[in-house]
Amino acid sequence: MERNFRPNFTYQDFAPHFTAEFFDPEQWAEVFQASGARYVVLTSKHHEGFTNWPSAVSWNWNSMDVGPKRDLVGDLAKAIRSKATDIHFGLYHSLFEWFNPLYLMDKKNNFSTNYFVQTKTMPELYELVSQYQPEVIWSDGDWEAHDWYWNSTVFLAWLFNSSPVKDTVVVNDRWGIGINCKHGSYYTCSDRYNPGNLLVNVGPTHDGRIPPIMEERLRQLGGWLDINGAAVYSTKPWTHQNDSLTHGVWYTSSSDGDRVYAMVLEWPMDNLLHLGSIYTNSTHTNITMLGYTHPLQFSQEEGSAAHVTFPPMSKVSNQEAWVLEMVGVS
């Protein structure tokens, strides 16, 4: 900010420039659907405290009173649910706010008081759940205080037992000091092959558009998943996470365990991939490449690596990373 804006420019000065006049939630929903995403997590409020919905406890510091003059959370929730019915709608929410005087007072009191939580954080969370019924709540901004300050256990008990989303909601693990990577009803601190989930950040412009380069990448990701999604969706870890011989080969398994997938990040220079973590059977093993119609040739001598012959790259549907589907391997 010091390099690009006048002296004493504040977050409050940004708000009128956040107009979102070109925000098209239906178009966003279509892009997210095309990307292959299974859930969308919109930032409802970040650390500066500006709410992207007309919160009753954020007077004159929300998207209805300042800037866009619309309910961004509600508009996207409606579009996601009507245009992309297989995508789950979620919300990111920051527990704390950098500049809120009530939070700063609680912090000065070593969090022996929780005026901010009672008058701001908790009312916001109850609003979001009651009004928009998110299936994911991605909490953040918890790291300066313990869960008892944030009233996390009380809120989560209501969320999972009495709220309108009690049977569908998923939360992360940022609800107080010491909780991160230890709790949460999503796979923490790992990628799909561990297993886990990948949340891709998309930064829209001030006028509400997804930048073309980001839209292009999202659609490319969806194109790759159209071909190779079997190695990602509804899979589980295999015996080996990555190959013991060749760098850049990662394994997953189908949920029933019948198929093993090898995601290859680098095309082998001689079109011959050497795999040290699988054992093949000349009678029962079948190896194919997703996006290529013919079975792949392979060989393996007892006690040595398996050697898989790749087809010409020009005959393969995608050029980013390649997936082998293997049946009858151990």
TrEMBL record:
Q: Which InterPro entries match?
A: FUC_metazoa-typ (IPR016286), Fucosidase_C (IPR031919), GH (IPR017853), Glyco_hydro_29 (IPR000933), Glyco_hydro_29_N (IPR057739), Glyco_hydro_b (IPR013780)
Per the record, the domain of life is Eukaryota
Q: Where is the Alpha-L-fucosidase C-terminal domain?
A: 241-325
What GO molecular function terms would the record report?
alpha-L-fucosidase activity
Which Gene Ontology CC terms are recorded?
lysosome
**Protein EC:** 3.2.1.51
Q: Name one GO biological process term.
A: fucose metabolic process
Q: Where is the Glycoside hydrolase family 29 N-terminal domain?
A: 1-196
**Keyword tags:** Glycosidase, Hydrolase, Signal
Record's PANTHER family?
ALPHA-L-FUCOSIDASE, ALPHA-L-FUCOSIDASE-RELATED
Concerning its family, UniProt says: Belongs to the glycosyl hydrolase 29 family.
Q: What's the stated role of this polypeptide?
A: Alpha-L-fucosidase is responsible for hydrolyzing the alpha-1,6-linked fucose joined to the reducing-end N-acetylglucosamine of the carbohydrate moieties of glycoproteins.
Q: What is this protein called?
A: alpha-L-fucosidase
Q: To which species is this protein native?
A: Petrolisthes manimaculis
The opening ranks of the lineage are: Eukaryota, Metazoa, Ecdysozoa, Arthropoda, Crustacea
